[in-house]
Amino acid sequence: METKKSSNKFLGAGVISAIAASLCCITPVLALISGASGIASAFSWLEPLRPYLIGITILVLGFAWYQKLKPKKEIECDCETDEKSSFWQSKLFLGIITVFAAFMLAFPYYSEVFYPDNKKENIVANASNIKELDVDIEGMTCESCNLHVEHEIFELPGIVDAKADYSTGKAVVKFDILKVSQDSIVAAINKTGYKVQNYNIKK
User: What is the rounded CA–CA span in Å between residue 120 and residue 104?
Assistant: First the structure.
């Protein structure tokens, strides 16, 4: 009985560490779905811990599989040993937990499926009205952050193109100055919870 309880604790720890490892990437999607875009950066502080949380998840689940698959010692006794283990102690349940953990850990690589394509076809009457805005953004930590920032920018009218890059902490936005202002673009980025540190229009 004690082994079963400790096994459940290990599985719980594996699931929690897997969720925590991807929480910074899941939050922008949850923010988009709920309409509360300002919470997108709430868990960005977890990003530096992600490699450690992934390691903990792999170790915990690896140990759980080792415990489940190792040969059982045969003990000669007259006691009844045909006790059937519950679903929660089965290999099937451990398999489900492992798949769920892998699904959570891989989240940053498929998060784009949750973002609708809101890029608009903009007809440019005069190319001299198109300007490029370079923006320094604080708080972006993964591809989900890029997608969230780009999504909010494309919600504005007059956006020709927008590209955010979490690795450099920058976004480049091409926009029609007759349809949208740079202040509106900055406000849209700040609305996500990531903060604009600096911005300037390319001449």
Answer: 31
Give the pair of three-digit tokens for residue 156.
């504005």
- The closest of 167, 164, 173, 157 to 192, measured between CA atoms, is 164
Closest CA to 114 of 174, 26, 49, 180: 26
More confident residue, 163 or 8: 163
- Per-residue pLDDT, averaged over 17-24, amounts to 67
Using alpha carbons, list the distances in angstroms from residue 181 to 7, 195, 201.
57, 18, 11
CB 14, CB 100: distance < 8 Å: no
For the record, the structure tokens of 190 come out as 């700040």
Tokens of 140: 């972006």
Minimal CA–CA distance to 191: which of 35, 20, 23, 12?
A: 35
pTM of the model: 0.65
DSSP helix/strand/coil, 64: helix
Cβ–Cβ < 8 Å for 199, 134: yes
CA angle (183 as vertex; 181, 188 as ends), nearest 5: 100
**Region for 186 from its dihedrals, namely left if φ exceeds 0, alpha if ψ lies in -120 to 50, beta otherwise:** alpha
By the 10 Å C-beta count (0-12 exposed, 13-18 middle, 19+ buried), 3 is classed as exposed
AA letter at 13: A
